[in-house]
Design brief:
It contains 7 helices and no strands. By secondary structure, the protein is mainly alpha-helical. The longest helix is centred in the middle third of the chain and has 19 residues. It is globular, with a radius of gyration of 15 Å. The N and C termini lie close together (12 Å).
């Protein structure tokens, strides 16, 4: 059985946020550029909140930018390997991500930055169908 962490590593959070931004772009969500922009901002704020090395933040931004470039060429290619795209999150994985975002938000001093992380958490909970998982499995499943 996979063990999910209540305190995921900041590097893991940054990777998950970046991957979800690439996923949104790979799915062709040009009609919702604000969602991708929110994830881009969230990635930068995650790196800031946790004091991650600048190289990680730059790498995250570069990967998202690369996916935008690939999308513009309509090549159908993705900036990430297929096995990393559209990873299926189960409820506990989503809870782990959301918990990590909560921990990230409280590390930020600026109220607007915390609000951005909150908006991103709501977006990810929606796109990863967390509410549906809770309805199917009950709240007690989230505590496991």
């Amino acid at each position: 059985m996979t063990r999910y962490e209540r305190h995921p590593a900041p590097e893991k959070l940054l990777l998950q946020i970046t991957t979800e931004a690439v996923n949104l772009l790979a799915l062709g969500t040009q009609e919702k550029p604000a969602d991708v922009s929110l994830l881009e901002t969230g990635a930068a704020l995650t790196a800031k909140a946790w004091g991650l090395p600048q190289e990680l933040a730059v790498s995250s931004t570069a990967l998202i930018r690369r996916q935008k470039e690939l999308l513009a060429t309509t090549s159908g290619r993705a900036a990430l390997p297929d096995e990393q795209l559209l990873e299926c999150y189960d409820g506990p994985m989503t809870a782990e991500l959301l918990w990590g975002l909560f921990e990230t938000a409280v590390r930020l001093d600026d109220a607007q930055e915390r609000a951005s992380i909150h908006q991103m958490a709501l977006l990810l909970a929606d796109t990863l169908d967390f509410d549906e998982w809770l309805e199917r499995n009950g709240l007690e499943a989230a505590d496991k």
